[in-house]
Amino acid sequence: MKESLTCDVVVVGAGMVGAACALYAAREGLDVIVVDRGHVAGGTTGAGEGNLLVSDKEPGPELDLALLSARLWTALAGDLGREVEYEPKGGVVVATPEALTGLETFAAGQRAAGVEAVSVPADRLHDLEPHLAPGLAGAVHYPQDAQVMPALAAAHLLRASGARLHTGLTVTGFLRAPGGAVRGVRTDRGELHAPAVVNAAGPWGGEVAALAGVRLPVLPRRGYVLVTEPLPPRVRHKVYAADYVADVASDSAALQTSPVVEGTAAGPVLVGASRERVGFDRSLSLPALRALASGATRLFPFLAQVRALRAYAGFRPYLPDHLPAIGPDPRVPGLYHACGHEGAGIGLSTGTGHLIAGLLSGVRPAFDLAPFRPDRFPEEVR
Question: How far is it, in rounded angstroms, from Cα 5 to Cα 225?
Answer without folding.
Answer: 39
